[in-house]
Amino acid sequence: MVARPKIKELEVMVAEVVRESPEAATLVLFTGNDRLDYRPGHFVTVDPHQFPALARFTAYFEDMKGSKEPARAYSLSSAPHERSLAITIKEERYVPGLTRYPPLLSPLLVWDTLPGTRLIVTGFRGPYTLPPDIENRTDHLIHICAGSGIVPNMSILKHALFQEMRIRHTLIYTSRTWEDVIFRRQLEKLAAAHPDKLKIVHTLSRDRKRSRPFSEIREGRVTEEMIRELIPEPSSIEVFVCGPGLSKFDRQAAKERGTEPQPRFLESVMAYLGVIGVPKERIHRESYG
Fold first, then answer.
1. Fewer CB within 10 Å: C terminus or N terminus of the chain?
2. Domains assigned to the chain
3. What angle, rounded to 10 degrees, do the helices at 184-193 and 150-162 form?
4. Which of 18, 38, 24 minimizes the C-alpha distance to 106?
């Protein structure tokens, strides 16, 4: 049994802010510690109470909800072999009629956090990680991601390729437009450097197909037919699925309407995987929403 990394508080400094897309940014964090014990796919949490600029909003939300605002979880986009920690955050949006409350922390981290900012993060946590015995379980990993669901999978991809594991990867990544693709330059470089180990298929729901040298780009959303095509041997692969899923607010709203909640990305992909015969024990899933 693998020992879990101890939960710890880290005081970090933002060394660099990298714009990844119109709504997402990577915060590269200097920790002063070159040996951090975490696994690819782990996340850290950030407590909104540490930011004076959010104090009145935090107090308002707590008054409205009748409970303390929890820390927010952000997946690590860095891999354990890299010297700095990095988290990649996509700004959450408030959509009238769909979103229960306006986002509290993500706009601040994406737009108002500058190099030199100090903050406290707590890590490392989460079950959505690369199993240490993965090479004994499969030789083909399938990554199915939407939006910022690419973040933990990027950590997993970088780690597996750096370690020269005997595994090939197929990444199916859905975004609205090509400009919305998070890590698009880094993914192109990885695909160019590892053509025999990494196949990338982008799907764009609101954009036309474009030509890229190291990636295949399709129009529309992820479908059952696409997954069936790209997973020819469903009983022998391992799948990592990350993207928007139904929230408790979605389920509550549907219950109040007397209807079933409409499946989102995660629920749809899980259904497709079940139909084509991927065993449940070979599917790793993580959702946001």
1. N
2. 8-125 (2.40.30.10), 134-288 (3.40.50.80)
3. 30
4. 24
Report how far apart, in Å, the C-alpha atoms of 10 and of each of 6, 23, 69, 118, 122 are.
12, 26, 20, 10, 6
**Measuring CA to CA, which residue among 171, 179, 127 is closest to residue 153?**
171
3-state helix, strand, coil in the chain (%, to 5): 30, 30, 40
The overall average pLDDT reported for the chain is 92
Pairing state between β 8-21 and 24-30: antiparallel
Q: Is the pLDDT of residue 199 over 80?
A: yes
Q: What is the DSSP letter of 42?
A: -
Interatomic CA distance for residues 249 and 256, integer angstroms: 10
Question: Which of 85, 89, 88 is CA-nearest to residue 38?
Answer: 85
Closest by CA position to 267, among listed 252, 289, 249, 282: 289
Which residue has tokens 């540490």?
A: 50
Distance (Å, whole) CA 71 – CA 66: 16
> If pLDDT is split at 50, 70 and 90, which confidence band does 4 have?
low
Closest residue by Cα to residue 90 from 23, 151, 22: 23
The whole-angstrom separation of Cα 273 and Cα 118 is 42
> What stretches of 131-236 adopt beta strand conformation (E)?
140-146, 168-175, 198-204, 216-219
Q: Which residue has the higher pLDDT, 287 or 248?
A: 287
The Cα 60–Cα 83 span in angstroms is 39
Q: Which amino acid is at 239?
A: V
- This prediction's pTM: 0.92
Q: Is the dihedral of CA 164, 222, 269, 85 positive or negative?
A: positive
Contact assessment for residue 33 and residue 12, using Cβ atoms and an 8 Å cutoff? no
Could you give the CA distance from residue 31 to residue 35 in angstroms, rounded to a whole number? 10
Q: State the Cα–Cα distance between residues 95 and 147, nearest whole angstrom.
A: 17
- Pair of tokens at residue 282: 């070979």
